[in-house]
């Protein structure tokens, strides 16, 4: 199991999410923590996701 000090690989997807090697914890502005134990986690960068901060592919539905 990785420790918090282990480096994580982050991939920027143009026009899409940030792909982060998991598991991850995302700390929100209000102090809440969103956790995912998946091996790769898609973090929303467009703020369109209904599951923000996790990506739900809403960036594909540009209006």
TrEMBL record:
Domain Iron-binding zinc finger CDGSH type, chain residue ranges per copy: 21-63
Name used for this protein in its record: CDGSH iron-sulfur domain-containing protein
InterPro entries: FeS-contain_CDGSH-typ, MitoNEET_CISD
Taxonomy of the source species: Bacteria, Bacillati, Actinomycetota, Actinomycetes, Pseudonocardiales
Keyword Iron among UniProt keywords: yes
Annotated keywords: 2Fe-2S, Iron, Iron-sulfur, Metal-binding
Superkingdom of origin: Bacteria
């Amino acid at each position: 199991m990785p420790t918090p000090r282990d480096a994580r690989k982050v991939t920027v997807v143009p026009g899409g999410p940030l792909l982060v090697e998991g598991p991850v914890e995302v700390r929100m502005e209000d102090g809440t923590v969103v956790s995912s134990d998946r091996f790769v986690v898609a973090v929303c960068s467009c703020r369109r996701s209904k599951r923000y901060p996790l990506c739900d592919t809403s960036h594909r539905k540009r209006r």
